[in-house]
Write a structure and sequence with these properties.
mainly alpha; 6 helices
Length: about 180
């Protein structure tokens, strides 16, 4: 499946344009996670790269890294986490805190001129991760459910992943590549 061509010129929407989409996608993802209990967390993800618990942990870590990057903090090696060992309620709390952190950090950049900092690019990538993580949960949300307003972010994620790959292979640079194989 091709989402967009390589020739498509990417321009990141300003943070203030992306904030409503980020809030809505965060709410959709949190609502889906809220409905999952212990038994549902061990179900394999749609990508086949772990379980739903792994998807939630990966999204939580990504949101934490994004917050640090938006705030200008180093994003080096992360300490080992215990997200895989948390109860469903604690896992939801960790995800909620991480998503709240990134939304709060991005809120500081609302109204900034486009290109003034990397916040718009990080906001776009956060939106892609929210939508793709939700699809990867395999809990009733599929690619055709992703709002049209978020599709540019999803397409940019895959273009950027392929460009970042030494072998021009998106699968080696994005945990979501298996979602597009079908």
């Amino acid at each position: 499946m091709t989402i967009a061509s390589d020739a498509t010129q990417r321009t990141d929407a300003p943070v203030d344009v992306l904030m409503p989409q980020l809030r809505a996608a965060s709410l959709r993802l949190l609502t889906a996670v809220l409905r999952l209990g212990d038994a549902e967390l061990v179900v394999p993800s749609r990508s086949g790269l772990g379980t739903r618990r792994h998807v939630i942990a990966r999204m939580t870590r990504h949101a934490d890294r994004s917050t640090r990057a938006i705030e200008g903090h180093a994003t080096g090696v992360e300490p080992a986490d215990r997200l895989h060992d948390l109860s469903p309620a604690d896992l939801l709390a960790a995800l909620t805190a991480a998503l709240g952190g990134v939304l709060g950090a991005l809120q500081e950049h609302v109204g900034a001129p486009r290109g003034a900092d990397g916040a718009a690019m990080l906001a776009r990538e956060q939106l892609a991760w929210l939508e793709l993580s939700h699809v990867d949960l395999d809990a009733g949300y599929a690619m055709h459910d992703v709002p049209d307003a978020s599709l540019d972010a999803v397409a940019a994620h895959f273009r950027d992943a392929r460009a970042a790959s030494a072998s021009d292979d998106v699968a080696s640079a994005s945990p979501f590549a298996p979602l597009m194989a079908g």
